Amino acid sequence: MTEATPAEHAAMARAIELAARGLGTTSPNPVVGCVILDSSGEVAGEGFHAYAGGPHAEIVALAQAGEKAKGGTAVVTLEPCNHTGRTGPCSQALIRAGIGRVVIAVLDPTDAAKGGAETLRESGVQVVSGVREAEATRGNVMWLSSVRRKRPYVIWKFASTVDGRSAAEDGTSMWITSEASRMDVHALRGTVDAIIVGVGTVIADDSRLTARNLRDGSLAIRQPLRVVVDSVGRTPENAKVRDGAAATWIATAAEVGADAEGRVDLVALMSRMYERGVRSALLEGGPTLAGAFLAAGLVDKIVGYVAPKLLGGGPAALMGAGVKTITEAIELDVTDVDRVGPDLRITAVPKREN
């Protein structure tokens, strides 16, 4: 049998749901979900990778399945690892458990961990791959994209009025969007490894840039790294981003490297962040830094919160993206439009030439 059965397709859909529970806590590892079916096709165990250094999804699911795993099927969103890191190879654990068949959504692209499917086959385990691959890829896109390109997956988040203004003419911007949108942003912060802002935003807004519950002000258990792009080191010593609530990196041109205009080289910054274990980042401000990221082709996804308001003046949400004429416009594929309180949340990805 080389094709996945209906039961295995259903189990993979469940494994993809389980994998999502690890978003924001597994980096620099991927999110992975696993479902063990016993020899009769019934669910015997489930698991997901919850945190870096913790047991992998397959190990959790095998522990739950126990003896029922023997002769059964492991349905897993990512190819079982084939190396020993902080944990042992999952391919060997599946073999020891007596699993007879493994159904995989996405093959592992990393040199260190790939090869699990071949190891399983060499041990007589039947392996099927590519099952619900597109869905599993979407669920793990930040990690997959990052390890393939050796830079973080970058989400640009902005908030604006319907006429594209990020603040009024007098500079006031609190609050353009609703509390519901701001809570949604904090949830989004909790899924990434880093938050990136420019020093101008730090000076103007003095935000903490933490992931927290707006209802009671409590901080999330895991905080993303706060990265301030600050070419010449202007971040005030008493800025809230230095408050110790989360790790902070003031990235200067002297440390990271400078571009032709003496500013922080963004490509070099991405490489340095990847070296630090950052696989995903939320770019939050301001409009000039966002423009520079877009001009450099470093934005992978856009999440815009648009308030049903008009200002008729004030700074735009985006500036300096390298677009001089309409034929140079950065085209987007809109993947989702949803209501968040009174606001619209628009999710899109830049179209890129192959």
From TrEMBL:
Catalytic reaction(s) noted: 2,5-diamino-6-hydroxy-4-(5-phosphoribosylamino)-pyrimidine + H2O + H(+) = 5-amino-6-(5-phospho-D-ribosylamino)uracil + NH4(+); 5-amino-6-(5-phospho-D-ribitylamino)uracil + NADP(+) = 5-amino-6-(5-phospho-D-ribosylamino)uracil + NADPH + H(+)
Family statement: In the N-terminal section; belongs to the cytidine and deoxycytidylate deaminase family.
Cofactor binding note of this UniProt entry: Binds 1 zinc ion.
Domain CMP/dCMP-type deaminase, residue spans: 6-128
UniProt KW Zinc keyword: yes
Pathway entry: Cofactor biosynthesis; riboflavin biosynthesis; 5-amino-6-(D-ribitylamino)uracil from GTP: step 3/4; Cofactor biosynthesis; riboflavin biosynthesis; 5-amino-6-(D-ribitylamino)uracil from GTP: step 2/4
Coiled coil: none
EC number: 3.5.4.26, 1.1.1.193
Name of protein: Riboflavin biosynthesis protein RibD
Annotated keywords: Hydrolase, Metal-binding, Multifunctional enzyme, NADP, Oxidoreductase, Riboflavin biosynthesis, Zinc
